[in-house]
Amino acid sequence: MILPNTALDEAVAIAQKIQAQIWQTRILHSDSNVSPFITVSLGVVSLKPNAETTVLSLIKQADEALYMAKQQGRDRLQVACHSV
Fold first, then answer.
1. What are phi and psi of 2, to 5 degrees?
2. Three-state secondary structure along the chain?
């Protein structure tokens, strides 16, 4: 999800709300070694775009943050702040 004109704290609050809503659904995930229920990990990136900023670079940074969140044990939120 790309949220233009959204401050980092707002983006984090939205991500946390998404996590909470998914947790509250209590959908069973019997194959998980983290939780008996479906969870979500999220990567949040905040940046001020410049002439070299592309949508693909933003998505790549968010994906890297997501990967870091998953490495920390899943059901996590990882924030990356860049000025690129």
1. -105, 125
2. CCCCCCCHHHHHHHHHHHHHHHHHHCCECCCCCCCCECCCCEEEEECCCCCCCCHHHHHHHHHHHHHHHHHCCCCCEEEEECCC
Residue 36, CA atoms < 13 Å, CB-side half-sphere: 1
Sequence-distant (≥ 6) Cβ neighbours of residue 49 within 8 angstroms: 58
Over the stretch 10-29, which tens digit does the pLDDT of each residue have?
Answer: 999 999 999 999 989 989 88
Q: Is the dihedral of CA 32, 36, 37, 41 positive or negative?
A: negative
The model carries a pTM of 0.79
